[in-house]
Structure prediction request, 391 residues.
Amino acid sequence: MKNLRLGVIASEFFDPRVGPMGGFGWAARMLSQVFQQQGSQVELVYLASGLHATAEQKEDQVHGSRLLLRRHSRLANLCAVQRERFDLLLTVDYHHADTVYLRAAPRTPAIIWVRDPRTPDDVRKIQTLRIPPTTTGQKTEAATETPQGLGHSDGSSMADIAKEATWLGRKLQFATTAPHLIGKLEAAYGMEPWDMRFLPNVIPVPDAPIVKSARPLVVFLGRLDPIKRPWIFAALAAHHPDVDFLFMGQAHFQGAGAWRAENRLPNLRFLGHVDEEEKRRVLSSAWVAVNTSIHEGLAISFLEALACQTPLLACQNPGFVVSRHGIFTGRFDGSGMDSLKAFSAGLRTLVDNPKLRRELGTGGQAWVATKPGGFGSDDLFENFLTQMGAR
Prediction:
């Protein structure tokens, strides 16, 4: 059986050298890890939808795979893609910029891996976001500063890609990490997909017994960028001096419109970006994982926390994951500073009720680990590629 040449189109790669450290990049890296660990016959090549080539550098290396940088003309991109002779293309979510590669190989089978399709309602909600002037103290003044990172790539061009696939006889398949995202596709992509498959995130579940910290420990896992509203977590720490708060993650944006962290609290620490082993160690010792984002598709951090038996406290509830395996505070738009009362009450409930924490944590881990939950099975990748008829 010949090797399968898989082109993975992505906007980030979970490597600080080549862009932000977000969930899309985590997924791109995960694909490489899955195939390398299996020793499979899949040869993966990354295609950068946003990183441009220079005269000196046309490609890079990331996670043990080649990374082709985007050329400055459609003809140059077409030639670069045609030289690779891909058997299959896969986009990590979908952005308009991906069309340059999808159209460069118009008959090559393609999978659109739906991860966070943003509807017009999602975009309007996100645009309400503002950075409050005070983020670590007791005050909750009106938000004033317009944040960076609220841009959105219109996904409606997917309707044209789908039409072209029909005309050219291309096999085009949609896949998603979570069933609740399916209902958003028509509004986000301007079309209703004709079929949908399940392509999960592969989340490792610790084999060793989970041991929680002696003192209450609460973690924030994610970029320290405005869309994640880390200032709510920092303000929450001021309300609970008997609880330790840890930030795990780093900021992608700097300057005006970025969050400027101020660590003036003895119970609040910043770890920055942590590697996988350290991340699992901290999540395993944590009592609660807090998510304060104004928007989420299905946060990888939710799954990673649950894999470590750590219940969730969040103001987003995608697919009812939070309300089933933690406490959902309700939705709060804008700066989110008016959510502090609800977050504080939810945190107090979890900290003061060890039985509830254990039940939510063990139930969440069982859900992540089972194939019906879908997040622990790397076999599905091989099976899915076979079903695409690419081999």
The first strand starts at residue 4 and ends at 10. The chain has 13 helices and 14 strands. The two ends are 8 Å apart (CA to CA). Residues 135-141, 372-378 have pLDDT under 50 and may be disordered.
